[in-house]
TrEMBL record:
GO terms for cellular component: membrane. This is Sensor histidine kinase. It comes from the Bacteria. GO terms for molecular function: phosphorelay sensor kinase activity; protein dimerization activity. Keywords: Kinase, Membrane, Transferase, Transmembrane, Transmembrane helix, Two-component regulatory system. The keyword Hydrolase does not apply. The chain crosses the membrane at residues 19-36, 48-68, 80-98, 110-132, 152-170.
Amino acid sequence: MNRTLPAALATGDRPPGRWGWLAVGIWLFYLAQPLTEIWQTQHGVVRILGLLNLVAFGVAYLGFFGVLRWQEFRSDASPLWHRLGFLGLMLTLTLLLIPTAGQTALTCVVYIAATAVISLSPQLGVAIVLLLLGSVELAMRVVPGWTDDGSYGFAIFLGALAVFGMRRAMQRGSELQRAREDMAKLAVQEERNRFARDLHDILGHSLTVITVKAELAGRLIQVNPEKAAAEVADVESLARAALGDVRAAVAGYRELSLAGELVSARTALQAAEIKADLPTTMDEVPEENRELFAWVVREGVTNVIRHSGAKRCTIKLSARQIEVLDDGKGPGGTTSGHGLLGLRERADQAGAALQVGESPDGGFRLAAKVGP
C-alpha cells in the first residue's frame, strides 16, 4: 500500500505558484482508503457523519497549507501555538474518524506528520513525528481487530523524511536567491565605485590643468594680452575635452591613450612652468600595457602639478615599466589619495606592481611594473 506523503508541500526555492493547490491537493487521493471503508461499512447518519468528518480533515489540511504558503513556509511567521493548534485540530479530526473508518483513519496521521515537519522547527517537527510514529505502532498492537503490517509506520517515517529533505532544499534555494541578490547589489556598488574613481581621475587631472592655465592667463592679461588670450583658449579647449571625457565615461567606452596622455602631460607641465623630460616614442610598450601606463602618466603628472612644487618632471618608459619622477618636496602626504588608490586597483587588475615613494633626486616617484 502506497501512502507517499504530500511531497509537493515544498517544491523549489519559492512557494508554489498558481498550481500549488493542485500539487498539494492531489495527495488527498490517499484518503480514498478511509472513504471506501466508511462507505462500505457504515450506513445512514453514521455514514454521513463519517464522510463529513473526512471532508473536514481534507479542508483543514488544505487550509493549513494555504496559511503556510501565505507565510512562505517560514517557521517563525506566526506564534507557535497557532501551528500547534492547527495540528491539534487535524489530530482531533483523525481521532473522531476512527469510529467510522477504523484502522484506515491512520492514513490521516501521514498528513499530520508532513505538516508538522514543514511548519515547525526541525527539532520540534522530529519530536512530533516520533511521537506520532510511536503512537501509531502502539495502537496497531493494542486495539482489538487492528493488524500490524508496518505499512502505516513506514509511511509516516518515509513521508516525514521526504518532506524534511524538500524543506531543506527549499531553504537552500531561498538562501541561494538571497546570495544572488546580495551579489547583484555588490556588483552595482562596485560599478559605482569604478565610475566614481574614473570620474575623479578624469576631472582631477583636467581641472588641475585648467586651474594652472587660468592662473597663468590672469598673470599675463596685463603684460601679454595675446598670450593670455591663447591660454584662455586652451582653458576652453581643455574644458570641452574634460566634458567629452565625462560623457564618454558615462557611456562606458572611454579608454586612455598613452600617446595622448604624454602630449597632455607635456602641455600641462609647460603651463605650470615645470620642465618636462618625456619620452618621444612608445613603440616598445606592448599594447596590453599602454592603458595602465596612460593612467600612471595622468595620475603622476597631476600630483606633480598639484603637490610637488617641482621644477622638473621626468617620465621613463620601457616595455614593462613606467616611472614618473620629480625634484619637488617628496612623497609627503600624497601616498594614499583617492587617485593613487584607484590607480593601485587598476594595477592589481593588470597584474602590475605599483610603487610610490621618494625619487633619487629627493622628490616624488610613481612607478608601475608589469610582471616579475
